[in-house]
Amino acid sequence: MDLWFFLLLLGSGLISVGANNVTTEPPTTVSTSPRSPTKAPTAGPEDGTTPNTNRLNMSTPGTVPTTAPKPPPTTATRISPNATTGSLNISSTLGTTVPVPPAPSLLPSVTPSAPRATVPSTEAETTERNFSMVVTTQETSSASHNGNSDRRDETPIIAVMVALSSLLVIVFIIIVLYMLRFKKYKQAGSHSNSFRLSNGRTDDTEPQSMPLLARSPSTNRKYPPLPVDKLEEEINRRMADDNKLFREEFNALPACPIQATCEAASKEENKEKNRYVNILPYDHSRVHLTPVEGVPDSDYINASFINGYQEKNKFIAAQGPKEETVNDFWRMIWEQNTATIVMVTNLKERKECKCAQYWPDQGCWTYGNIRVSVEDVTVLVDYTVRKFCIQQVGDVTNKKPQRLVTQFHFTSWPDFGVPFTPIGMLKFLKKVKTCNPQYAGAIVVHCSAGVGRTGTFIVIDAMLDMMHTERKVDVYGFVSRIRAQRCQMVQTDMQYVFIYQALLEHYLYGDTELEVTSLEIHLQKIYNKVPGTSSNGLEEEFKKLTSIKIQNDKMRTGNLPANMKKNRMSSTE
């Protein structure tokens, strides 16, 4: 842009620059002749005479001027451009024309006119020639201005083209950098320490790590069991200041036993069987499958035995099956004599694969050597119940017995956090307890990784049993013990608080779910007077409802200063 502007200015002032150069710089060679006292000198033509032609200014001798005598004339120099060679002819009024080497021209070339045959001898002709030169100079200057104007018109177009080209180059560079960064992120996805929970891949082609919460420095404070009559008071105290004491208690939990090993899970043959590279079963508590002949490490599955309140190996905590491990999952169900499967995740959450569908929608399907057929499906508000008939496929002459397996699929767990209320989970847990046969093997519980929601379900079940037996709960102690059997059981502090809320809900209100057929009997019972009080059961039940502590953290929008005036009563936001 600066170069174009400089050329524009230089082109428009070219004639004046040339004149200044002539008057300030002396000619190389100038020939003069004796001046004539009778007549003023006449300038030579400026129409491009051939440089080698010598011209003489002729004057009439003996002519006496009629006007007052003029001062002695000085030698005048005349500049005439030579259009043929591009040089300048410097001629004296009394001398010959001397060529000067041409200088580089910044103006467009002008077609020279034909040289004149005669030299003007009269002042009128000289004046006419001078006027012609002025017009020619103006035309040349006008042509120069027109050329510069055309260049000026082209300048914005060139600038726009340069800007667009630069923009395209920048966009291309950004796209290339983004693709390289995305490729690098994808390759390092399994080693990411991001806090964002991205549980699973849609294609299940390579394992990734389960993001774990950053732990605050633990304290040496002990957390003994809580009596049930102190449960509400303790929960309210620990929930103060945005659950500060609950977070301290959760961070004090042991991460994993010091001497625990995961050698089987870390073998190269078993790495693809793990959904997350950092959620692996310990060797001392993992489930062993019957080895398949000719298949190395076919006894491995990402699942661990977990104790109940008083029952050893009551549960099997497993990861959500992958496409590659569905056959192993059903083989475990068959070998462990499992009659109940608890699923605490959806197949996809936040458009991410959490678990492969390991059952047929209808009819039957064979997974490895286990044939699974759908017998019944019941869809409820918070969960779905599916009943399967499974049978081991073998020799047709030796028909294998069939078994009934019930899957309880909890569908009300949100994608983020925990359920808003523990009521749905308590009903779900009650259904699982009542439907699991006494003769059956371990209850298989799984979510996506088999540690967070899975651990939450197992802890609530065990603490309800402890509450009924000992009238106290030991959440901290029980979570610490099952973490010695599988890493990261109860994965977040929100899940830890949710366990306490479920226990308090059950303690305060009990089991309020009734069958329709028993409603009349229940009404007759609560209309009776409660021993030791002046109120009946219905009134006592209503008092429990009014004693529920209002949780302001769940009404933050209604408590905003801008919204307070919109509420009729401050206690009902």
Automatic annotation (TrEMBL):
GO molecular function: protein tyrosine phosphatase activity
Biased composition (Polar residues): 49-59, 78-95, 191-200
Signal peptide (residue range): 1-19
Pfam families per the UniProt record, alphabetical: Y_phosphatase
Major subcellular location class: membrane
Record bears the keyword Repeat: yes
Domain of life: Eukaryota
EC number: 3.1.3.48
Annotated Tyrosine-protein phosphatase domain residues: 246-506
InterPro entries: Prot-tyrosine_phosphatase-like (IPR029021), Protein-Tyr_Phosphatase (IPR050348), PTP_cat (IPR000242), Tyr_Pase_AS (IPR016130), Tyr_Pase_cat (IPR003595), Tyr_Pase_dom (IPR000387)
Gene3D superfamilies per UniProt: Protein tyrosine phosphatase superfamily (3.90.190.10)
Low complexity biased stretches: 23-38, 106-115
GO CC field: plasma membrane
Region named Disordered: 18-127, 191-226
Topological category with respect to the lipid bilayer: Single-pass type I membrane protein
Domain Tyrosine specific protein phosphatases: 426-497
Subcellular locations according to the entry: Cell membrane
Membrane-spanning residues: 157-180
Entry's family note: Belongs to the protein-tyrosine phosphatase family. Receptor class 4 subfamily.
Protein name as annotated: protein-tyrosine-phosphatase
Organism: Chloebia gouldiae (Gouldian finch)
Lineage: Eukaryota, Metazoa, Chordata, Craniata, Vertebrata
